[in-house]
Amino acid sequence: MRDCDALLVVLRGFIDDRVIHPKGSIEPPRDLAFIEAEMLLADLDMVERRIERLEVQVKRPTSTQKQDLIELEILKRCRDAISEERPIKTLQLKPDEEKAIRGFRFLTAKDALIVINFADDQHLLIGVPLFLSMSGI
């Protein structure tokens, strides 16, 4: 998933007793929140591991010390956003800051298209249009 340019998230919106939902009910907003949380946690893990390494690196004089300090500050901003349950793409990063962290391919920095798979003969679930407009992905 990290190698792609954007994400396509397909949520189940159809009811079919032959296909059991792992959570026991069909609730696309809940399912999207779960997916968002998993992506935030994956990015947080990566950010925290890199911050730990950088905090050790910047204490030693190296040819990349200045760049490492800049990267460290950007990653701390990313960590703060994720801790507030905000995707990295919500940060107001400058082009050079985006470039500095591009190599990490953060999941929450990617654009996403959210699709709900409904059966042809079923009506939209109540609340779905509202939740889609509020989603942080």
Protein topology:
Layout lengths: L5 E7 L15 H30 L7 H19 L11 H7 L9 E7 L10 H7 L3
Parallel strand pairs: 1-2
Helix pairs in contact: 1-2
Question: In short, what is this structure?
Answer:
The protein has helices spanning 28-57, 65-83, 95-101, 128-134; strands spanning 6-12, 111-117.
Relevant terms:
two-stranded parallel ribbon, mainly alpha, 4 helices, 137 residues, DNA polymerase, domain 1
* Total of domains: 1
CATH topology name, in short, is DNA polymerase, domain 1
Runs with pLDDT <50, length 5+?
130-134
How much is the average pLDDT?
A: 87
End-to-end span in angstroms?
Answer: 15 Å
Q: What CATH first level would be assigned?
A: Mainly Alpha
User: Count of helical segments?
Assistant: 4
Helix- and strand-based class? Answer: mainly alpha
Rg value: 19 Å
Strand content of the residues, in percent?
5-15%
The major beta sheet can be summarized as:
2 strands, parallel
Helicity range of the residues? Answer: 40-55%
Element order, helices and strands? EHHHEH
Strand order of the largest sheet: 1-2
The 3D shape can be described as: elongated
Task: Give an overview of the whole structure.
The chain has a two-stranded parallel sheet. Residues 130-134 have low confidence and may be disordered. α1 (28-57) packs antiparallel against α2 (65-83). The longest helix has 30 residues, at 28-57. It has helices at residues 28-57, 65-83, 95-101, 128-134, and strands spanning 6-12, 111-117. The two termini are 15 Å apart. The radius of gyration is 19 Å and the shape is elongated. The relative contact order is 0.23. The protein has one domain (6-18, 25-134): DNA polymerase, domain 1, CATH 1.10.150.300. It has 137 residues and is mainly alpha-helical. The chain is built from four helices and two strands; from the N terminus they run βαααβα.
